[in-house]
Amino acid sequence: MKKIYLLIAVVFMTLSLGAPHGALAYDLGGVQIHGFVSQGFLYSDDYNYLANDTKDGSFEYNEMGINFGKQLTDKLRIGLQLFSRDLGDAANNKVTVDWAYADYRWQDYLGLRAGRIKLPMGLYNETRDMDMLRTSIVLPQGIYNDLLRDNLIAINGVGLYGNTRMGGAGSLDYQALVGVVQTDPDSGVNKLTNDGLSSVQGQVTGSPQNDTSYVGALRWETPLSGLKLGYSIFYETDVIMPISILDGAIQTSFEGPVTIQIASIEYTWRNLVVAAEYMHRRADSTILSNQRITKAESYYLMASYRFNDWFTLGSYYSEFYPDTEDKDGSEATVNNVPCSHRAWEKDLALTLRFDINDYWVFKIEGHSVNGTANVIVLDNPGNDFADSQWYYGAAKLSFSF
Question: Structure pTM?
Answer without folding.
Answer: 0.91
